[in-house]
Write a structure and sequence with these properties.
single chain; mainly alpha; 2 domains; two-stranded antiparallel sheet; 9 helices; 9% strand; binds zinc ion
């Protein structure tokens, strides 16, 4: 996970682009103009609630005035995400805002989608709100699906608002000494945190399937690590292995919840592993 700046687009402008692309003879234009103020008023409301970690208080809707849920969702699908949509430039800018295309929800996958942080199926009136649109990888987007928060503790990490959730480490890795040896990830949020924040990071971990994506990357890395550790251990013993693992950990200490930092931390701290336990790592499949 990592934080991103808010998109530099106002919903007023995005909505105008979408409505402008609809034929003026279409009755939908009049019906959208009738609810335009409500859609625009969602922006400061969303901003305040997200800033205060209270997005669970945003009201879910099935329609807005005489505009149906399907028509609200079509604003996004026809004019924002559609390749030739009138507001496609906004979609592209939001999607491309992730440095190196790295997904801000997991810091593993490549950005492939724009995700509705609060799903458009439950909040159709937020379908074109830039603050609700976040770049995401396919795995996070697919795993998150249409989940939404019914309590404050159920809010997942929002890259535009939740940098405060990244200041301390809340993901832990442990070694599973079975055959083959693997690393397993779990959540251990700081107990000094407000209970809501502890619940939020646990919810994010589950909702985005981080146990799976972190485990997949870490265990693939474990296999390639085996020979390297053996070469260090032969002349330098456990101390050389531990020093190498700590150096790798420290090279990622600017991101304490990255799979790399958590992974190398767990390996370096395991006396059995550094004393030769690493030999239990499965050999690579050729
Ligand atoms: Zn992701």
């Amino acid at each position: 996970m990592y934080a991103l700046s808010k998109p530099a687009f106002a919903v007023t402008d995005v909505l105008a682009m979408c409505i402008g692309a609809i034929s003026t003879s279409d009755d939908l234009v009049n019906r959208l103009n009738a609810v335009k103020n409500t859609i625009e008023a969602n922006e400061p409301l969303y901003d305040t609630h997200a800033t205060n970690s209270l997005l669970n208080l945003i009201v879910r809707r099935t329609d807005l005035g005489s505009v149906t849920k399907a028509e609200l969702i079509a604003l996004y699908e026809d004019h924002l995400s559609a390749t030739r949509g009138a507001a496609r430039a906004v979609y592209d800018a939001i999607k491309n805002a992730a440095p190196n295309k790295l997904c801000p929800l997991c810091s593993i996958g490549s950005v492939a989608h724009v995700d509705h942080h609060l799903p458009k199926s439950r909040y159709p009136d937020l379908s074109v709100l830039p603050l609700n649109l976040v770049p995401a990888c396919h795995f996070c987007n697919d795993t998150k699906k249409a989940r939404f928060p019914t309590t404050a503790g159920e809010q997942t990490f929002h890259p535009y608002y939740d940098a405060h959730l990244l200041t301390q480490r809340w993901i832990t890795a442990t070694l599973d000494y079975g055959a083959p040896l693997v690393v397993v990830f779990s959540v251990t949020a700081p107990t000094s945190w407000p209970l809501t924040d502890q619940q939020r990071v646990a919810r994010h971990f589950t909702t985005c399937g981080l146990g799976i994506s972190f485990g997949t990357n870490a265990n693939a890395n474990l296999v390639s690590l085996k020979r390297r550790l053996q070469r260090l251990h032969d002349p330098g013993g456990a101390a050389a292995v531990k020093a190498y693992l700590e150096e790798e950990r420290d090279s990622h200490d600017d991101k304490p919840n990255s799979w790399q930092h958590v992974f190398f931390q767990a390996l370096a701290a395991d006396d059995w592993f550094v004393n030769g336990g690493f030999a239990q790592i499965a050999d690579p499949q050729l």
